Amino acid sequence: MSKLSGPSTSTIPQARPGWPEILTALFLYMIGIVMLGLWMSQIPDEQASLRINIGGVGNGVVGLAALFAAYALRVRDLRAFGFRVPERKWLLVGAALGVAAFGGCFIIEGVYFHFITEPNNQADFQTAAQGGALSLFILIISGAILTPLGEEFVFRGVIANALNRYGAWAGVVCSAAIFGVVHGFNVILFDAFMVGILTGILFRKTGSIWPGVMVHIVYNGLNLLYYSTL
């Protein structure tokens, strides 16, 4: 990890988010996710597609709100949060890593389920993905576009960004660990940690959230398309 280097200091603002932004964004994000989860828990199982789409849209909205709360504190420059246009090659790299991550999740889950048995926590996604073309289209918008945007805004734009000042281990590995834990103590923790490592590396290399967003969109999208075939 020590070989990772950040983008040229001439291309990004000197100021960057720090601990006040991390704590604000993470606190508001977690409060929002808990409230969203309580709302979703009131939706009956017969409306699993509605429940999961509300979750996807809500995740995007909560992430955006947490980002702007952090933005409003001190560093009122979105470029400092990774809102920079990267070179096209990095978007292509992000797409390729999204495909690699999709393949990697089968390895992770194969090893995990060899040792541990747990309920299927992706059942709602699978139900929504198998509900027909319209249901799958809506799910792609909510789960493969809005959710990655909200999560990348918070976990790369704020958290990984702020931790990068302490080096690659903090900026990439620690932010990925936080990202994994937020997904719960189940197999998805390890999938999310893998995605967090890849997106964290791209953010550190480019100073832009968009290559990581590309990883996340491709990864989530391929998973949802896969669920539609089960």
Architecture overview:
By secondary structure, the chain is an all-alpha fold. It has one domain. Helix content is 73%, strand content 0%. Residues 135-221 form the CAAX prenyl protease 2/Lysostaphin resistance protein A-like domain. The chain crosses the membrane at residues 21-40, 52-71, 91-116, 128-149, 170-203, 209-227. One of its GO terms (molecular function) is endopeptidase activity. Keywords: Membrane, Transmembrane, Transmembrane helix.
**Overall pLDDT:** 93
Total of domains = 1
Order of helices and strands: HHHHHHHH
- Secondary structure tally, helices: 8
- Main pleated sheet: none
Beta-strand content: under 5%
Report the radius of gyration as a whole number of Å.
17 Å
Number of beta-strand segments? 0
Distance between the termini: 37 Å
Query: Overall 3D geometry?
Result: globular
Instruction: State the helical fraction.
Output: over 70%
- Low-confidence stretches at least 5 residues in length (pLDDT < 50)? 8-12
Report the structural category.
mainly alpha
Q: Quick summary of this structure?
A:
This protein has 8 helices and no strands. With 230 residues, the protein is an all-alpha fold. Mean pLDDT is 93; it is low at 8-12.
